[in-house]
Amino acid sequence: MKGIIVIATLLCLTACDKGGSNDNSSNPSNPNNPTTPVTPTPTPVPVYDPQGTVYSSECDEYTLTEVIADGQGGEEERITQDSTECGYEEPVITVEVVQDTGDRFDRVQFKVSATHYGEEIDWDFEIEYGTVIKTEDGIEIASDGRLGTHVGIIAGEEYQYTFVREPKCEGTVEDHGSFSIPYDCQGYRQGSGTPFYVWYGEPDVDTRIVYWDVIQMYADARYDGLEGRPLIGEPNDYTLYRSEHLVKIVNERFEQWGIHVRIRLLGTYATISPTSLTYHKFIEDGTLPPADFIANNQNAGAGYCGFAGQTGTFRDHKMKHRYLTFHNGCSADTWLHEMGHAVGLGHGPQTDNPGGGVTFPDFAQGAGGGSVCGPHYDMMTYGGGWNSKSFTSPYVDCERHYPDNYKQYHGTPSGDTTYSATGYAINRVRYDVSLVHDEWEHPEATDNPPEAMVDPDYNEPVYQVIYD
What we know:
The strands form seven sheets. The protein has a six-stranded mixed sheet. By secondary structure, the protein is an alpha+beta fold. The chain has six helices and 24 strands. It has helices at residues 2-19, 237-256, 281-284, 332-342, 398-401, 422-434, and strands at residues 54-60, 63-69, 75-80, 92-99, 101-102, 108-116, 119-120, 125-126, 131-134, 138-142, 148-154, 157-163, 172-175, 180-183, 210-219, 225-226, 229-230, 261-271, 293-297, 306-310, 323-326, 377-378, 389-390, 464-467. The protein is elongated and about 150 Å long. Helix content is 15%, strand content 26%.
């Protein structure tokens, strides 16, 4: 009986448990009622316009202002200067290498064009080697004596250029034992011991203008010497005007006569005694600025209008007698005559003080009256007035010298290299004279060796003073 009661109790517990719950999820072993997992509802992800999406844009001249998406659902402003969308155009800059090899005179050349909307704009350059000369079309670079290939920056780009030595008209040398005679590349006889001169071609083809710098001195008793050294002062208005006027008319005549030289007046000074024979030393010590010549207005001596030193050696600061002196009462032809002596010209035989040229003895001398374009005179001879004298050349017609007179001589050269062609001689040495003081020379120049004479045994050229 007791065993029946236990069984009944167990059956009751089982039945009571089944009746107490309808949840079958707790019964994983029930294959007729599988488990279904609960999936949470996802949070929606916001969708924004990509960053940079343009909502609006507006131009103010060349400035573009845009409202754009920031990529986070907001907006931001973006400003673009010089926007092509607002019509902006980039500057147009071109650099043309015209000549990448040059020297002091035949210069390196770059042509530069820089425009913006058709208008010219500024451009820059950085040139370490050489002296830059700005031109209408770009720049030229003159050698400063430091030879070789260099790099410069023009309008933001690098360019190479090369400096070489100036060409010379080298020819042959005849040895005569105690002396030698050089003949240049054109076959012209030069003065004994003179160097071969810089040469780019005959002056009817090579018409490049070369500048000679001059200091004009005037005597003024107000300036006393100090320990043997003159005090330099500013001259009065009249002497300033006289200097400027003199240079002006000399340059006009040089142009008329086909001489490819122009005079630049570096300054006019007054001193108690502008002694011509020694005054060049005051250039060397810095009292006066560097110059190719010192022109002195002073008493040239009884019966003389002027005097000058004569030499055929120039370049590399070696022209010792770089002076010309003329008397107050004498005209501009005296100034030109003395300058002719200073660059190696002589009187010729038709004067009371005859003498030939030291640069080219055969023609660097004057011709007397009746020998130049009819009755006229060469500038290096005596006689004739200001309007009847000139420097002469086989490449310059008499019409250019005297356009309004003696027309029967028009079509005839004014000079002849077999006798007298002083203007031609000046053109032949004009480059070397301008190198007496090389204002562009760099202290580290590699192109400043001692001037090589054609005769290795010739040490010092003979200088002489010629009074006129």
